[in-house]
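Hi R.,

Here's the input for the magnesium ion complex you asked about:
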Amino acid sequence: MLTSIVGINWGDEGKGRMVDLLSQDYDIVSRYQGGNNAGHTVINELGKFILNLLPSGILREDVVNVMGPGMVIDLEHLSGEIKRLTDAGVKVTPENLKISNKAIVCMPYHRQQDILEEDRLGDAKYGSTRRGISPVYGDKYMKKCIRMGDLLSKETYTKELSRILEWKNLTITKVYGADEVSFDEMLSWLDKYAEEFKDFICDTGIYITNAVKNGKKVMFEAQLGALRDIDYGIYPYTSSSSTIAAYAPIGAGVPNLKLTNSIGIMKAYSTCVGEGPFTAEMFGEEAEKLREAGGEYGAATGRPRRVGPFDIPASRYGVTVQGCDELALTKLDVLSYLEEIPVCVAYDVEGTITTEFPYSTELEKAKPVVEYVKGWNCDISKCRKPEDLPKEAYDYIKYIEKAVNSKIKYVSVGASRDEYIVMY
Ligand code: GDP
Ligand code: MG
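And here is the predicted structure with magnesium ion in place:
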């Protein structure tokens, strides 16, 4: 059993909480792309955790967590994240955390370059998390990165660092006019984390393949959502990696294995962090109310998220590119304050009405076509079965299910582990 859990929208759909919930039936959870720009919130009996790099299965004692070759890993950040968990009594050891030898190390100079570039762009900035993700993925494809496996040999990473810094410093000093990155400082950074993480590094492809042969079940956890995928998202306002399900086996180290199914996590309304077209965006008081109701402030950055109604063209596109077998509709409880619920049903692109998700240049010109459906206007957070739901809430779920043409199997009505409904 190989299942991917992926985002349908712009990210922050509640993937972390769904992975935490559904991983009860799995043996392995693997993150397969991205870095510490992720912010996955998990709330359970141990407390509230925001995971940036660690797979969201880390809070289950019997789950082994894998960080795949598709990831970029800031080791300083990972060290801090592990410390926060171990301080809270969560076990993180080489037994329950495996890091791919092929994963890329996100260096302090990647972070620095991200900040230098966003500052250079000024008002035209991408809205990066400034954590080095785009520079490190760029360098990966330029083949100028240190990989986790290099950390097992001081001779290797010293040589690689010297080769790379000679090149990187040209950009840092001559393009951005900043001070040269110090070789000695970077080497001691690598020394420190090579020592700390050496026992976690392995070939995760061999590990997962053997586990699957022995009947183990694997879940692949995505970061961000379909609309932030580097190829299929709203380029260039995307992340720098592949967030889609089809990439999961590759990014986890097992391109030889095929997914059994894909579960899409989709929010009952829209939110977006960062810049770029966000057709259904609400403004003013209406937006403020939804943001407050949903607590829509970035888990990784604390930035207020842009908000809007559920967006049918965008979500249906997300479901399509993710190839979802079933969906989880999250945060339905947040809409309880509304008497009428707005839904973006189509886009108006210079007078042409379309329900297809358009190419970036048309998307820039798109205006939302909004319709209203009846709200339930009462607390649904205690509902645990479909029958418990008010008719209007049940109808909203069915309306969305039909609009995106995929089964909504789970509905979440609160942030804690047990606050959900199984629809089928
Ligand atoms: P992720 O990045 O997809 O894992 O999502 P985030 O953790 O960034 O954002 C989801 C937010 O919604 C977190 O603060 C969760 O605790 C919260 N959340 C998740 N599911 C629900 C839900 O059903 N209802 C409510 N009210 N909050 C939820
Ligand atoms: Mg998030």
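One thing worth noting: The longest strand covers residues 340-349.

Cheers,
M.
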